[in-house]
Every structure is written in structure tokens, then in C-alpha cells.
Design a protein that fits this description.
Length: about 70
């Protein structure tokens, strides 16, 4: 699986990939964006997006691995 952001080339975390899937296309398997580029694309702050990720994770969204 591609593990670099297609826009800035940053290394992707599983959360970045989960957020790309959640926001762009659930079935996507490439062209993932890092959280900074996602925030920019959707006009939100990185902080806000991180809050969203935690919210999705807590809601049991399968795109985000549960925290240990
Ligand atoms: Zn990026």
C-alpha cells in the first residue's frame, strides 16, 4: 500500500489513510493524503480534523484502529 501523501510526500500514518478514506472515498486504495493536506483540502484546521478522527474512532468506525 502506498504510504506517502500524494501532495506533499509526507509519510502516512494509519489514521491519515483512514481519514482519507472517510473523507474522500471509502474504497480508495491509493492517492491518500496526509492530515495536513486533508485539512487544507477541506478548509479545516489540523486540530479539528484530529478531533474528528478521535470522534470517528470512538464511534467505532472501522477505518480507525482502536487505541491500545
Ligand atoms: Zn500531505
Amino acid at each position: 500500500m502506498q504510504n506517502k501523501c500524494v501532495i506533499c510526500g509526507a509519510d502516512l500514518t494509519p489514521d491519515d489513510i483512514g481519514a482519507s478514506r472517510k473523507l474522500i472515498n471509502r474504497g480508495m486504495d491509493k492517492d491518500f493524503l496526509c492530515i495536513s493536506c486533508l485539512a487544507e483540502k477541506y478548509g479545516v484546521t489540523v486540530e479539528k480534523l484530529k478531533e474528528k478522527i478521535e470522534y470517528w474512532r470512538e464511534s467505532g468506525c472501522m477505518l480507525f484502529a482502536p487505541k491500545e
